[in-house]
Amino acid sequence: MPSTPYWSGSFPALTTPFNADLSINYDQLRAHLEVLIDSGVKGFVMMGSLGENLALTWDEKFEILRVAREVSAGRVAVLSGVADTSTAQAASYSAKCAALGIDGIMLMPAMVYKADRDELITHFTTVAKASDLPILLYNNPLAYPGDLTPEILETLCDASDRFVALKESSGDTRRFLDIQKQIGNRLALFAGVDDLALECAFLGAVGWVMGIGLAFPYENQRLWDLAMAGKWDEARELYKWFSPVAHLDVGIKFVQNIKLATATTGYCAEHVRLPRLPLVGAERVRIQAVIDEAVANRPTL
After folding, report:
1. Is the dihedral of CA 90, 42, 267, 297 positive or negative?
2. First-to-last CA distance in the chain?
3. What is d(CA 62, CA 162) in angstroms, rounded to the nearest whole number?
4. Confidence class of residue 201 from pLDDT cuts 50, 70 and 90?
5. Residue 1 has pLDDT above 80, yes or no
6. What are the chain's domains?
7. Which band of pLDDT confidence, cut at 50, 70 and 90, is reported for residue 165?
8. How far is residue 69's CA from residue 100's CA, in Å, rounded to a whole number?
9. pLDDT (average), residues 239-250
10. What is the CA radius of gyration of the chain?
């Protein structure tokens, strides 16, 4: 990977904290952002999948970005997730993000619509032309329509220098080597699945867009620092503790799981907006037990 990638390090994908009436709790958001900066993160990804992007209005999104930029004050990069149902909407939103002065966007495929290769390429390249913001591509074919294969990534890199990084969430760590073989160091590779982060780091990831670390920020950062220092034995020991909660980042209830974890550790409330529903019954008991065990056995750093 590039020795000096455009972005690197841990970039938490922030939840959007809600009050009981489902209005946004900006005080909790500000406090959480400060803790994350203190832990050593290098950037914020606001309103990605974990931030319930599609459950927010554009006015809310831009206010969240204003708050993140204010708290960051240039200390870390501020990115916005871009998730819209049409290319035109995504392009318009990206242009407005640029006007706010944020540092970049994390760009997803057009939501809902299943695109073929040419449509995928057209979507990403069209949005790239809408502003001068650098772009973290987001590949998650398990959750969203479309798969950014190594060949498609090469085409995108040839088309625009706005594409500077990739959050790779296919769940197949072999992709990291395949991508590097196809395009070399043209994109900074980011791990995108919490319970594959250490494997991705070993295979060349220079960054991590992380989720459960929102509840365990200092442990999360320590794990990444150990990996980047090549201290694999120490990293593996910490990963053994981390893995059970990292598994909560996978599955259709990952937002609820991580919000329950952040509520347990005192950072953000667990409220979610429809169509998501809160965890209840046996499912909630099971997830809470995993979180409580991690808290009870929290390592000394």
Report:
1. positive
2. 29
3. 22
4. very high
5. no
6. 9-296 (3.20.20.70)
7. very high
8. 9
9. 97
10. 18
Identity (one letter) of the amino acid at 74?
G
Question: In whole angstroms, what is the distance from residue 66 CA to residue 290 CA?
Answer: 35
Name 103's Cβ contacts closer than 8 Å, sequence gap at least 6: 43, 77, 78, 79, 133, 134
Residues 6+ apart with CB under 8 A from 202: 227, 232
In one-letter notation, the amino acid at residue 67 is: V
Chain Cα centroid distance, residue 182:
24
For the ranges 87-96, 125-134, 140-149, the lowest mean pLDDT is seen at: 140-149
pLDDT digits (tens, 9 = 90+) for 125-138: 999 999 999 999 99
Q: Rounded to an integer, what distance in angstroms lies between the CA atom of residue 263 and that of residue 269?
A: 5
In the beta sheet, which residues pair with residue 81? 106
Residues β-bridged to residue 79: 45, 104
CA atoms lying within 13 Å on the CB side of residue 291: 24
